[in-house]
Amino acid sequence: MISPSTRVAALHDNPQLLKGMLRGIEKEGLRVDGEGNLALSAHPAVLGSALTNSRITTDYSESLLELITTTHDTVEGLLGELLDTHRYVARNLGTELIWNQSMPAHLPDEADIPIAWYGTSNTGMLKHVYRRGLAERYGKSMQCIAGVHYNFSLPDQAWDLLEAGGDPAGDASIEQKRSRGYMAAIRNFTRYSWLLMYLFGASPAVSRRFLQGSSHPLAQLDPDTLYLPHATSLRMSDLGYQNKAQSELQLCYNDIDTFVTRMYKAVTLPWPAYQAIGTHRDGQWIQLNTNVLQIENEYYSSIRPKRTTGRCERPVTALAARGVQYIEVRCMDIDPYSPIGISETASRFLDAFLLFCAFEPSPYFAGTGTCGNSRENFSRVVKEGRKPGLQLARPDGHPDSGRPVALQGWGAELLERIEPYAEALDAAHGGEQYRQAVRAQRLKLEDSEQTPSARLLRELRESRATLHEYTLRQSRQHCEALRSGELDAAAARTLAELAASSLQEQAAIEGSDRESFDDYVARYQAALKPPRQA
């Protein structure tokens, strides 16, 4: 492999590599009524089929929109498409709004929160029953939390470049190099993603109704708002996601083979509490199976190795057969100050941060290959990241692993290491926007009051508004701006055509089913092959 000191220089010498970086976004957002209460209406038909529309769908709840971009080689193209989609959706929601906060609006009773519906086809019912299982395992309120997922990939030239000068495993295919490279990036992401939570976490508070009488460690900001005084992202904390089955699931990011082996075990190993629930109630399916995970996507993580799958192909089988294709960052909160939930500055910083994770040395995690003290660092920052004098632990793989280090000092050190990657991106794309995005984060480390989580709490206090009132006002303003903004005519036609054709595609799928749902589920489970057979 090339030495660390020459990696950034190699990027400057290969601008086409950086121009070939791809990024995509999946942005979630609750539909709410004009008073900020969860919309109980069906997914609007004008937006197409939630099953087959590739750009506008739903996530866990029927009320939780998911807007998906295609992949782009520039930030401008990425955010431009996301803005067009938001404008199209805003104009077709009638009196409803998109809730512009990760933590939910006022929710009805659990029983009345609608689970996402995808029609009567076997494919649609599989998605619906999976979500019924999530409700049984975690509760429906959890299905209403929203975030921004950032998908990232590098051209294959990057992995050849990183392994130039000697392949540690001998001759390897590009698929093997690619998987090694992405798993290395994931290890570094796991070590350093606490920084993203400090810089961009924007959910330090939640409506009291979200917890619906559950015990919690939160303080009261006002009669309707609960918070932690130094929290950055309650969304990414263990608030509500306390699940023994998942807490004991320790995936390994040292290599793809171990990762898929452990994931395979999780989706095939029965869990006693889920066995007690069963798969049927009153003759109806209520979960796909009684295993630790019903399917691979049930694993809640801040980052995932990903591979596109064919119809009825399981993700773990696809990963075992063809390796990692891209990585999905899942920890970003909705930016409440952006109508589309993410700013250009955040997107550019993510690009530089993920490039840094991919190109910096990434030692294996010790022992069983799990995350070591990185998990604890992340947990501390989401719950108390702005606490004065907060100390974290140097990560597994660092010469001083386990030793305490001040958050501000370590953060400044990381920004210094990330900035050369921003310079390389600027050199490839022109301008100084990447460097400016990295430098803008220094102010947040110097003064925690500049972070979005601190800003949100400060504005709540100054306005004397509850979180619900504050977010409703912002959501209305964003919706008005989206509806009044100019929507490109070609983009509007494309989105309308996708909506119409997706309804036709769903109808065709429903009309083509020839097997029972029971048989379909059995076939879907049988498609899961042990990694050695994939």
From TrEMBL:
Pfam families from the UniProt entry: Glu_cys_ligase
Keyword ATP-binding part of the UniProt annotation: yes
A GO term for molecular function: glutamate-cysteine ligase activity
Domain called Glutamate--cysteine ligase: residue spans: 12-381
Metabolic or biological pathway, per its Swiss-Prot or TrEMBL entry: Sulfur metabolism; glutathione biosynthesis; glutathione from L-cysteine and L-glutamate: step 1/2
Entries under InterPro entries matching the protein: Glu_cys_ligase (IPR007370), Glut_cys_ligase (IPR006334)
Catalytic function, reaction form: L-cysteine + L-glutamate + ATP = gamma-L-glutamyl-L-cysteine + ADP + phosphate + H(+)
Keyword Membrane set for record: no
Enzyme Commission number(s): 6.3.2.2
Enzyme class, UniProt record, top EC level: ligase
Keywords: ATP-binding, Glutathione biosynthesis, Ligase, Nucleotide-binding
NCBIfam families: glu_cys_ligase
Family under the similarity heading: Belongs to the glutamate--cysteine ligase type 1 family. Type 1 subfamily.
Descriptive protein name: Glutamate--cysteine ligase
Species of provenance: Candidimonas humi
